[in-house]
Design a protein that fits this description.
Lysozyme; alpha+beta; 290 residues; 10 helices; two-stranded antiparallel ribbon
Amino acid sequence: MSHRTVSPLGLAQIKLHEGFRGTAAPLPDGRYVVGYGHVCETPPSAPLSKAEAGRLLEADLAPIEQAVSQGAGRPLTPAQLDALVSFAFSIGLEAYDRSDVLRRVRAGDFAAAACAMEAWRKTAAGGKSVVCEALVRRRAAEKAMMLSEGQGAPSAWLKPEMDHAASILGAPSVVAPTPTLAGALAPVAMAPIAEPASSQPIADDIGPVRSFKLTAAPRADTPLWRQAAFACLTLFGLALVATAAAAYLRGAPFAANLSASFLLGAPGVAASLAGLFFLTRPMRPVFARV
């Protein structure tokens, strides 16, 4: 059964980010990488040419292209297919199948899907998980490719505002350099995203620019037993506060009343506030189309 393939521009971008290796280099798992990210059990007996490496890459991309096309659940533009195939080839089909990117693509929310790509920018280096410079560049290129087809809007009308959540989550404190294999790869020089080919014009009636607002939605990762524990903590704190109030209103000397109220009331207030805080945490920010 035939399937759609990436465009020449998309293939060139994947080659750019994978880098070319004529001679195989060993991987930590005992396999080898050669050409444009091709993984093999045994290294080739002779160095590969770029043409041979290109054919291997096209063969490696075939199952990715089929999975991305069939899994989207809706038609994809050439730019969207290019971006998603590059992304899925980078993180692997298993990770792609469970990613927020695919979930948002299936919902038809391509802007949110493009933003979700940026979460996949870490790799293991030096025994810890770090944000990698090469992955930051690749995710940015894939996001730009995904969103390259759309209607423009003048800045005087569409005035940008600061997204504080993006500024906090989107800027890592440390970006690690790209880990190298035996025999360093040539640095990746980012190529500009070309205009769509004349054979695939962008329609003039693509529709208005979609906007999004930040809303709240329940978190699926907070177990019910944990929510019940926070509720009990809140009730316990309120009980301590009530006991402190009762002790203060008793007929004992003023100093004794004040001491008892403080010893019971302070932890009661702290427990109540902590319980209420964690009870309200099951709301997470999400983008909703308006």
